[in-house]
Design a protein that fits this description.
Order of helices and strands: HHHH
Radius of gyration: 42 Å
Strand content: under 5%
Distance between the termini: 126 Å
Low-confidence stretches: none
Shape: rod-shaped
Largest sheet: none
Number of helices: 4
Mean pLDDT: 85
Length: about 120
Amino acid sequence: MPRRVKQKKSIFSELSENFFKKISTEDARLRRKIVKLSFWVISLFFVYSMMHSTYGIKRIITLHLEKETLVEMNRDEFIKLIDGQRLRGLLQHDRDYIEYIARTQYHMVYPNEMIYRYRGQ
């Protein structure tokens, strides 16, 4: 007759047998706790992934702010471009504007013209 060898059971085998038996047959209260706990774990994982993932809320907000700053910079550059084109047109065709620039910025005068400056100016 062969010798019987007692097989070792793991520490968790008895605990897991009791746990699954409790869940399946007896304790509805324990089942509700497990469902609630699993719901909270899943919801916390979802919130964490929304905050720290590649397409998370933080990334979306930073991209939105970057877009707003780029739009504002583009608007400023566009205004400068239009103003430059307007000034170019004035310098090419408007004699009065050219004379105004020559007198104010470069202090040019007509020949034999006297300019009086007061100390207050």
